[in-house]
């Protein structure tokens, strides 16, 4: 079994999403130490911002007429799609930034679709763990209910477009303790963190037995 882990935090060692992904991976590798783990960090090593447009243009251009940039971008798109296709399980750590997915994540998705072809169910039936973290809270009745434009979009791509068997691990209120305006939510934030840690631990164990 091979596992692909993709991170996207821009916050380096302070990343709450990477911390949870690390827990999933820790449990997975403890139970399945011989399995291959491939990693990619979209926040630390971003994909080139012009690659998607070049790949799309390249795919509409006869091979002999493609520019070097188009050929390179199509190669990158094929590589990214291949990483997902070849993985038996996938762990994604994608935070909420500015009420949506980061451009690092968006271009990864765009390039995978360019590399695989539209409508190709790259992850059909595969276990995929999506870890997502949010500084605030977006549940029913909160002032910003409906402002999280990341989670449903990712579910749409992973499940409805690529066919993944998705497990979602969410942690809200990660900015409690950082932003004093959120101090009144300290107890709740602690409970949400504990629940996310428990879910990550349990999910990592379960992944190793699939
Ligand atoms: C540039 C930036 C934009 C952010 N935008 C939002 C936002 O729109 N909504 C929110 O709830 N939190 C926002 N946050 C907080 C992050 O969601 C929070 O720090 C979360 O833990 C990020 O995951 P990470 O720790 O893995 O980077 C933002 C953080 C940064 C650095």
UniProtKB/TrEMBL annotation:
<feature type="binding site">
    <location>
        <begin position="133"/>
        <end position="136"/>
    </location>
    <ligand>
        <name>FMN</name>
    </ligand>
</feature>
<feature type="binding site">
    <location>
        <position position="9"/>
    </location>
    <ligand>
        <name>FMN</name>
    </ligand>
</feature>
<comment type="similarity">
    <text>Belongs to the azoreductase type 1 family.</text>
</comment>
<dbReference type="InterPro" id="IPR029039">
    <property type="entry name" value="Flavoprotein-like_sf"/>
</dbReference>
<dbReference type="InterPro" id="IPR050104">
    <property type="entry name" value="FMN-dep_NADH:Q_OxRdtase_AzoR1"/>
</dbReference>
<comment type="function">
    <text>Also exhibits azoreductase activity. Catalyzes the reductive cleavage of the azo bond in aromatic azo compounds to the corresponding amines.</text>
</comment>
<dbReference type="InterPro" id="IPR003680">
    <property type="entry name" value="Flavodoxin_fold"/>
</dbReference>
<keyword id="KW-0520">NAD</keyword>
<comment type="subunit">
    <text>Homodimer.</text>
</comment>
<keyword id="KW-0288">FMN</keyword>
<dbReference type="InterPro" id="IPR023048">
    <property type="entry name" value="NADH:quinone_OxRdtase_FMN_depd"/>
</dbReference>
<feature type="domain" description="Flavodoxin-like fold">
    <location>
        <begin position="1"/>
        <end position="163"/>
    </location>
</feature>
<dbReference type="Pfam" id="PF02525">
    <property type="entry name" value="Flavodoxin_2"/>
</dbReference>
<protein>
    <recommendedName>
        <fullName>FMN dependent NADH:quinone oxidoreductase</fullName>
        <ecNumber>1.6.5.-</ecNumber>
        <ecNumber>1.7.1.17</ecNumber>
    </recommendedName>
</protein>
<feature type="binding site">
    <location>
        <begin position="15"/>
        <end position="17"/>
    </location>
    <ligand>
        <name>FMN</name>
    </ligand>
</feature>
<comment type="function">
    <text>Quinone reductase that provides resistance to thiol-specific stress caused by electrophilic quinones.</text>
</comment>
<keyword id="KW-0285">Flavoprotein</keyword>
<keyword id="KW-0560">Oxidoreductase</keyword>
